[in-house]
Design a protein that fits this description.
Blueprint: H1 11-30, H2 33-42, H3 49-79, H4 89-119, H5 122-153, H6 157-160
Helix pairs in contact: 1-3, 2-3, 3-4, 4-5
Membrane topology: Multi-pass membrane protein
Pfam family, one: Ni_hydr_CYTB
Protein name: Cytochrome b561
């Protein structure tokens, strides 16, 4: 862990955060394409170009989420993160829980997807499919918390992940 605590998130922290957010949003919106690809491969064995592209995009975007998440954890460990804004004990626990569960999902969901697709592990696929509703719930909580801090508490929590200026 870093011996010093930065005053603000670095541009690298911010870029990785928003890149992962965009990739996960893509997965949530277009993730059903994997089912289309699987059905096509089980059926006549030849998916159309769009189905093949979207299915493969799902795989590669999932890998990108996993790689960027590992990179983000390395950056956090190496360079640290700013101290949390002052909050009640309950808000602090909720923030830690949501962030921790998001990190867990950003690792487990791609790994189980890869295990299901390339390893044929049915149970991994079932776990993988639980990721979508869990991501939606946690993202909603994360966004609600950020908006609450920004509009109700009027602190700089949200702005810290938009600009690296302290």
């Amino acid at each position: 862990m870093s011996k010093t605590q930065p005053a603000a998130y670095s541009p690298v922290h911010i870029l990785i955060h928003w890149a992962i957010a965009a990739l996960i949003l893509f997965q949530l919106v277009f993730g059903e394409s994997m089912k289309d690809l699987e059905r096509a491969l089980r059926g006549d064995g030849t998916p159309d170009a769009v189905t093949a592209f979207m299915g493969n995009a799902h795989i590669w975007v999932g890998i990108a989420v996993l790689v960027l998440t590992v990179l983000r954890l390395v950056v956090r460990a190496r360079f640290g993160v700013p101290a949390p804004v002052p909050a009640s004990r309950l808000q602090e626990l909720a923030a830690r829980a949501v962030h921790g569960l998001l990190y867990l999902l950003m690792i487990v969901v791609p790994l189980t997807g890869l295990a299901a697709w390339f390893g044929g592990i049915r149970e991994a696929g079932e776990i993988h499919e639980l990721g979508k509703p869990l991501f939606i719930i946690l993202i909603a909580l994360h966004v609600a918390g950020a908006l609450y801090h920004h509009f109700a508490l009027k602190d700089r929590s949200l702005m810290r992940m938009i600009s690296s200026r302290a």
